[in-house]
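Q:
My hope is that you can spare some time for a protein that puzzles me. I hope you can help me see how the letters and the tokens relate. Thank you; the sequence and its tokens follow:
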Amino acid sequence: MRLYRRRLGAGERFRRLYGESPLQLLLLLASFALCAYAGIRLLSGDWLLILIWFVGAAVLHDLVLVPLYSLGDRGAEAALRSGRDRSGREPSGRDARGEHGPGVNHLRVPAFLSLLLLLVYWPLVLRASRPYEDATRLSIDVFLGRWLLITAALFVVSAVWLVARLYTDRRRARAE
């Protein structure tokens, strides 16, 4: 019995060998070229201080911040788990499908966004940026209050979303 093989076009052969389309490879190479250009421009100045800053940021993130994130996440899961044990879910903090309870991500997302805003604006939030005040003639005294209001609003919106989600899930469960 002779097997007939279909002739593949150049695009199909490329996709079979590479795994994606040629356009994806072209976009990937263009992004690498852009990053290389930005890196060359960035490192054309005082490259040693920039390198020290990047290494220091990586070490600080990996050795200090990741353990703090993990502790905060575990604390949030433990706090939410204590309220869920009465509902008959598994005591591991996960439901029967192996997923976290619904409240954990409603804490993670606003906390992440709030900390991201703090990371970006920390000199202004902590009132440590005199050059900003001198250059713009605007007061930096308002940034702490605004960051706290944005943080509170993020958590309120997340809580309302969680309540609405639990309400619709409960109505859907009763209808079944």
Remarks:
- The CA atoms of residues 69 and 112 lie 10 Å apart.
- The mean pLDDT is 82.
